[in-house]
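Changelog-adjacent note: as of this version, every example in the card shows the full chain rather than a window. The one below runs 105 residues end to end.
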Amino acid sequence: MSGAVPLSGIAEAIAEIKRLVALAREDGVPIFHVVHHGRPGAAAFDPEGPNVAIIPELAATGDEKVVVKSLPNAFAKTDLHRLVQETGRSELIVAGFALSRGLWP
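Full-length structure tokens:
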């Protein structure tokens, strides 16, 4: 893949994350989706632009929460910590990557 931050193996990563999400859904494991939004009009992560969408086949369904972050840390200035605590679970599985929308297959 090309772009400002070239990535390889995107299709394989998407397939693996899709399997992980499917297993979590089957087992009733809470899923939180995190998306990064920058400043409106910014070159990267413009919340009103086309490059911030979650890959469609990995998007939230049902009551899955989407957490919008503006910093590199998904817990900083978001409610992710509270949401995770509310599940009563003490472990997390984290999967994903940052990818410009125009780069996925």
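Structural remarks: Residues 10-26 form the longest helix (17 residues).
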